[in-house]
From TrEMBL:
Protein name, per record: Winged helix DNA-binding protein
PANTHER family reported for this sequence: MARR-FAMILY TRANSCRIPTIONAL REGULATOR (PTHR33164:SF57), TRANSCRIPTIONAL REGULATOR, MARR FAMILY (PTHR33164)
Listed PROSITE patterns: HTH_MARR_2 (PS50995)
Keyword Kinase included in the entry's annotation: no
Keyword vocabulary terms for this entry: DNA-binding
Matches recorded under Gene3D superfamilies: Winged helix-like DNA-binding domain superfamily/Winged helix DNA-binding domain
Gene Ontology BP annotations: response to stress
């Protein structure tokens, strides 16, 4: 069951238009300042959105060099440097020597950072759980699989756009 893919010259399929609109609206709703502030209040953590994104990425793949972290987040290294400094000042991360190259440093979570990530994720998951309360387990499983696939495909396309030598899969 594959969705028709529009040609570069043709108009996008109605499903593509509907999906793009829904994603735009969901992104807006999720990323509103008020929503972030509510999540941080529930988690008991005082960090801006960018710092939370960096903190969560470190938790998913620590320890990383700042350049690796920037690559995974698809942002400039200077952006990551500012966020890491904020997180380090707050006591959530520390810089440790890279075992493979003692001149380099990696960023890893402190115990306070692990606890902050746990609280942020717990508060976030409660919100998703409330949103999906009326969905059946099968609908939730299907949604999880489709969202995971969508994100994976977005990442592949982002890599292709970043590296013109990489062609479509």
């Amino acid at each position: 069951m594959s969705m028709p893919t529009p040609s570069s010259a043709g108009a996008p399929a109605p499903e593509v238009i509907e999906i793009e609109r829904a994603l735009t609206r969901a992104t807006y709703l999720i990323s509103r300042t008020r929503q972030h502030e509510r999540l941080m209040a529930l988690a008991g953590v005082a960090l801006d959105r960018a710092a939370v994104t960096v903190l969560r990425q470190i938790a998913d793949s620590e320890p990383l060099r700042p350049g690796e972290l920037a690559g995974r987040l698809a942002v400039e290294a200077s952006h990551v440097t500012r966020q890491v400094q904020q997180l380090q000042k707050a006591g959530y991360v520390t810089r440790v020597p890279d075992r493979a190259d003692r001149r380099a440093r990696r960023v890893e979570l402190t115990p306070a950072g692990r606890e902050a990530v746990r609280r942020i994720r717990e508060a976030s998951r409660r919100g998703v759980q409330r949103t999906l309360a009326d969905w059946s387990p099968e609908e939730c499983r299907r949604l999880a699989a489709l969202v995971r696939r969508l994100v994976d495909d977005f990442l592949v396309r982002a890599d292709e756009e970043a590296d013109p030598a990489v062609g479509p899969a």
